[in-house]
Specification:
It is a single chain. It is built from 13 helices and no strands. The chain is mainly α. It has one domain. The radius of gyration is 19 Å and the shape is globular. The two termini are 33 Å apart.
Length: 250
């Protein structure tokens, strides 16, 4: 998510025609600060796994973890690009009280992003071992399963999940959800790390992202739209099945 662009668009703020207006500045801060805070907390949460490993293990173990526990940046870049493009249209629909159409547009964007990123995840899973060995060496064999598991997090990187709430100017709720997810990530990651080691931490991050999808889906009441617009797409369903099969049996 790019908060500056989002709230500037939402408040119809024109940087080229800027005039000092106390009310406008106050509105921008009220709207935008929670998004910046949510972004900061989100970045911290995404790196929480590495923090846990770094303070509980030596450099050798951390190197193995860091080699596998990383996201391919392109996933987030693609979803952010699509989200920034569609955000003004979502805001316009919300302003016209056409919330259902805004939700449909949001899920349609998720479909488009998924059709780009899911094939990448599939290929990366299939060649995960070769990728790790090429970038590092065969000494990082234990990093392969971490990398494969981290790739599954990319399944949730198909949109910016705070867009609909931000369009309705409920940015404080975005921050609250992000803080809840940080707490979930911390608790689940530590528990799974205790029982399953390094893989447990990655699974904890994966579960947290699953909770993120679930919370926003429930909050925005998207249950009825996902089967019609997302899971109805045969290509996406096929890709999901192949991704899970390669992860389990590959």
């Amino acid at each position: 998510m790019c908060p500056a662009l989002f709230y500037a668009r939402a408040l119809k703020f024109n940087f080229l025609k800027f005039r000092w207006n106390g009310e406008q500045i106050k509105k921008m801060i009220t709207y935008g600060f929670p998004l910046y805070l949510a972004t900061f907390v989100g970045v911290f949460s995404n790196n929480l796994d590495k923090l846990i490993v770094s303070v509980t293990n030596d450099d050798a173990i951390f190197a193995i973890f860091a080699a596998g526990a990383f996201e391919i940046p392109l996933f987030a870049m693609v979803s952010a690009a699509f989200a920034q493009q569609v955000f003004p249209r979502v805001v316009a629909l919300i302003d016209k009280k056409e919330e259902l159409q805004a939700k449909r547009l949001w899920i349609d964007t998720s479909v488009k992003v998924s059709l780009i990123t899911y094939p990448m995840i599939l290929l990366a899973l299939f060649f995960a071992e070769e990728i790790i060995y090429f970038v590092y060496s065969e000494a990082y064999e234990d990093s392969v399963v971490l990398f494969k598991t981290y790739l599954l997090i990319g399944l949730f990187r198909n949109n910016s999940y705070g867009v609909l709430l931000a369009a309705k100017e409920k940015t404080k709720m975005v921050t609250n959800i992000t803080l809840v997810l940080l707490g979930i990530n911390l608790i689940v990651s530590i528990l799974l790390y205790y029982f399953f080691g390094l893989l447990g931490i990655v699974v904890g991050t994966l579960i947290t992202n699953g909770f993120m999808w679930l919370i926003y889906t429930v909050k925005e009441r998207l249950w009825s739209l996902y089967p019609k617009l997302f899971f109805k797409n045969k290509i996406i369903v096929t890709l999901l099945i192949l991704i899970l099969l390669i992860y389990i049996y590959g």
